[in-house]
Amino acid sequence: MAIYRMANLNFELNLIKNSILLPSLLKYETKDSVADISITVEIVKEIPLVTTAKVINCTRFYDLFEEEDFLVQYQRKDKNEPYFGYIKYAQNYCKIYILEDELNVMQLNEYLLTQYVFPYYVMKLKTAIWMHGSSIKYNHSAYLFSAPSGTGKSTHAKLWKRYVDCEIINDDKNIIILENEKLVIYGNPWSGKHHRDNNISAPLKAIVFLSQAKENAIKSISPKEAIVKMLTQVIQPLANKGLDNWSKMLDELLKIPCFELQCNISQEAVKIAKDKLEVIKDET
Predict the structure, then answer these.
(1) What is the pLDDT of residues 203-254, one digit of tens each?
(2) Average pLDDT, stretch 119-146?
(3) CA 262 to chain CA centroid, nearest Å
(4) What percent of the chain has pLDDT over 90?
(5) What is the DSSP annotation of 176-228?
(6) Which residues sit opposite 235 in a β-bridge?
(7) Which of 39, 78, 176, 218 is the most exposed place for a label (fewest CB within 10 A)?
(8) Which domains, from first to last, does the chain contain?
(9) Which candidate, 4, 258, 277, places its Cα nearest to that of 133?
(10) Using an 8 Å Cβ cutoff, are 93 and 39 in contact?
(11) Distance of alpha carbon 206 from alpha carbon 248, whole angstroms
C-alpha cells in the first residue's frame, strides 16, 4: 500500500483496482514509511446491519451509529434508498465496505465514501474545516471562490488560470487548517468532476462569494453577511465531538476579508477581482 501526504498527514490507502482516485493521488505520494491513518476498501456482497449500536445522526444520505470503539456510517444515494456501502471509523484506521456492483459504479461509490473519510480524520487530528469552492494560489497566497453548485466557481478559477500566473489548489472541496495562527488551504484529490487539484498549499487571504451577472462588480461584505453564505458551503463534522474546533474555524474564517463578486465569463471579471484582492493583500 502506498502512502500519501495530504494536509500534513500521512494516509496509507488500499483502494479498489482501477480506482479513479489513483491518477490524482500520485501527486501526493511520499517516501515516508509511517502512516498517521490507514484506510482500506473492501468489496462485499451484502451490507450487514448493526443491531446494538447507538444512533448518532440520520440524514438524507447517511445514518451514523456508535458501536463500541467505532463510528459506523451507512451510506445511500438518497432518502429511502438501500445502502450501497458503509464506513467503520476507528482511532487511526478505517475500513470502507462497498457493495459489489459494476466496476464503474464501485469506482464512483469509493470516491464518494473516501470523500467522507479524508476530512473526518483531518478534522479529528487538526483544527480544520472542509469548504466547498474553487481555490487558487496567487502571489504566495490562497483565494477561495465559493458559491452554490452551478454558479460558475470552476469557470471563474479557470479564467484566473488563463489570464493570471496562478495555480489551482482545489476545484471543489477545500481543506482549511489553522496552523501557527494562520489559515492554510491544502490541495487534495477530492476535487470534483474536473479533477483539478495540486499538491500545494498557501495561507488563505480572502474568500470571494460569486453570483452571475451581466456586469462585473465586487464589494466587501460584513461578517454577518459572510456567515450566511459560508454556512451553506462548509461541511459539519460527523460527530459532535468535533463541533468545538469546527466553531473555532468558523470564527477564524470570519476574520478573513470576504467579498461578493457579481461577474460574467470574461477577462474583465478576473481583473476587477484581482485588483481588489491585491489591495487587500498589500494592507495585510
Answers:
(1) 999 999 999 999 999 999 999 999 999 999 999 888 777 788 999 999 999 9
(2) 95
(3) 24
(4) 84
(5) EEEETTEEEEE--S--TTTT-B-S-EEEEEEEEEEEE-SS-EEEE--HHHHHH
(6) 130
(7) 78
(8) 2-125 (no CATH), 129-283 (3.90.228.20)
(9) 258
(10) yes
(11) 18
- 3-class secondary-structure state, position 62: strand
> Which SS3 state, helix, strand or coil, does residue 165 take?
coil
Residue 207: which residues within 8 A CB-CB, separation 6 or more? 133, 143, 144, 146, 226, 230, 253, 256, 257, 258, 259
Q: Residue 281: in which H helix or E strand, if any?
A: helix 267-283
Residue 14, SS3 per DSSP = strand
C-alpha cell, 180: 501557527
Residue 59 has pLDDT above 80, yes or no: yes
> How many Å apart are CA 221 and CA 188, to the nearest integer?
29
Q: Name which of 13, 9, 35 is nearest 26 in CA terms.
A: 13
- What are 63-111's pLDDT values in tens digits? 999 988 899 999 999 999 999 999 999 999 999 999 999 999 999 999 9
Euclidean distance between CA atoms 139 and 142, whole angstroms: 8
**Per-residue DSSP letters for 97-160?**
EEE---HHHHHHHHHHHHHHHHHHHHHHHSSEEEEESEEEEETTEEEEEE-STTSSHHHHHHHH
